[in-house]
């Protein structure tokens, strides 16, 4: 089942079950996807929908950090619950060994030799493993590998 179909199905189920928090999160996600669709003036591909989902997850993570720093644990906990709902739709993240292997493979395929090739390597990995990789972690790993 495609992600868009799964989102719609889960939204209807949550709506019927009166799960207000889940409905609110899925409604925001659907709105963000619809805005992206309007921006592109076409239906979203699976990768584009995953990108929208990843941005929503990142927004929640940043909000949690800011709320925690400000001492607003109540708001941080609410964002954490929303993040839990969103993460259920992300593909399984790559483990450290799989990520290192993906970096080595991409560097070998692209014949990357220095920092000038970092963007190409990053794009290749993010394209192949959309939604499965944390950008900061990947950046650090690629940078250390290319500098050695």
- Residue stretches low in confidence (pLDDT < 50, at least 5 long) are none
> How does the overall form come out from the CA principal axes?
globular
CATH superfamily (homologous) name of the largest domain = Uncharacterised protein YqeY/AIM41, N-terminal domain
Mean pLDDT: 93
Which CATH class of the largest domain is shown? Mainly Alpha
CATH-defined topology of the largest domain: Hypothetical Protein Yqey, Chain: A, domain1
Structure report:
The mean pLDDT is 93. By secondary structure, the chain is mainly α. It folds into 2 domains: 3-88, Hypothetical Protein Yqey, Chain: A, domain1, CATH 1.10.1510; 96-147, Orthogonal Bundle (Arc Repressor Mutant, subunit A), CATH 1.10.10.410. Helix content is 76%, strand content 0%.
List keywords for this structure.
Arc Repressor Mutant, subunit A; 148 residues; mainly alpha; single chain; 2 domains; 7 helices; Hypothetical Protein Yqey, Chain: A, domain1
């Amino acid at each position: 089942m495609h992600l868009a179909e799964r989102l719609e199905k889960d939204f209807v189920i949550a709506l019927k079950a009166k799960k207000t928090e889940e409905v609110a999160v899925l409604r925001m996600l659907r709105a963000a996807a619809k805005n992206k669709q309007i921006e592109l003036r076409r239906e979203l591909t699976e990768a584009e929908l995953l990108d929208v989902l990843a941005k929503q997850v990142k927004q929640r993570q940043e909000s949690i950090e800011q709320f925690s720093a400000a001492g607003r644990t109540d708001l941080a906990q609410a964002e954490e619950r929303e993040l839990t709902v969103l993460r259920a739709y992300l593909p399984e993240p790559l483990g450290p060994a799989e990520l290192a292997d993906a970096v080595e493979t991409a560097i070998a395929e692209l014949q990357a030799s220095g920092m000038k090739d970092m963007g190409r390597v990053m794009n290749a990995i993010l394209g192949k493993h959309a939604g499965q990789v944390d950008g900061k972690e990947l950046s650090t790993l690629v940078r250390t590998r290319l500098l050695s």
